[in-house]
Amino acid sequence: MVRFVHDTAAILDAAARLLATQGPAGVTMSAVIRESGAPSGSVYHRFADRPSLLAALWNRAIEHLHRDAYVLLDQDDPVEAAAAIAGHIVRWCRSSPLDAQVLLAGAHHLAPQNWPAAAREERAAETARWDAAVRALVHSLRDATGLPTATILLTVVDLPYAAVRRYLTADRPIPAELDFQVPAMVRTLLNRLPSAEDAAAVRQDSQGLPPTAAT
Questions:
Q1: Half-sphere exposure of 132 toward its Cβ, with a 13 Å CA cutoff?
Q2: Reported pTM
Q3: With contact defined as beta carbons under 8 Å apart, do 11 and 46 qualify?
Q4: Nearest to 59 by CA among 144, 119, 111, 13
Q5: Residue 118, C-beta contacts closer than 8 angstroms, at least 6 positions apart
Q6: Contact 96, 84 (CB under 8 A)
Q7: What confidence tens digit (pLDDT) does each residue in 11-68 have?
Q8: Alpha carbon of residue 6 to chain centroid
């Protein structure tokens, strides 16, 4: 099927390009019309105003990221599930750089308080679904590894995004080797970091040593 330059996806792609190069302030209706080459009537037919456009831009990016992620969480081994999610985030950011730039900007910069009610509800529903899935993974990882929640979140959530952020902010390609390096790091950290009980024992042992030996 032939895709016309003024279909919904092409309009949102144009908005994402503007966001990546000019920031959220650059995503105006007139700028999107120019960037997409679409007739103004086509743009306004799909998006009544700028808040509607920004809402669609954010919700599309989140839906694309999460769509193939949920199935990766359905594994017996929570460490492997965490590694799979980490690899998915890296691969998705490489294959969907425009959507990745939207998420990098953050929803709070897209004025979600002005979005249409239906778009806000869509965002809230997906956020709740994803948060529930992540909480379930964290609980499984705590049972499997003994690690505290903060350590698990740092490893499973923050590490993959930190790995790709430097490339996204510099508009550079994400290296293919990160597909393997980031999941491997997640596995290593979850399997080798000391548990909360181990860390407490180390602190207790250190407190009993002479000052020169403990430093």
A1: 6
A2: 0.84
A3: yes
A4: 119
A5: none
A6: no
A7: 999 999 999 999 999 999 999 999 999 999 999 999 999 999 999 999 999 999 999 9
A8: 28
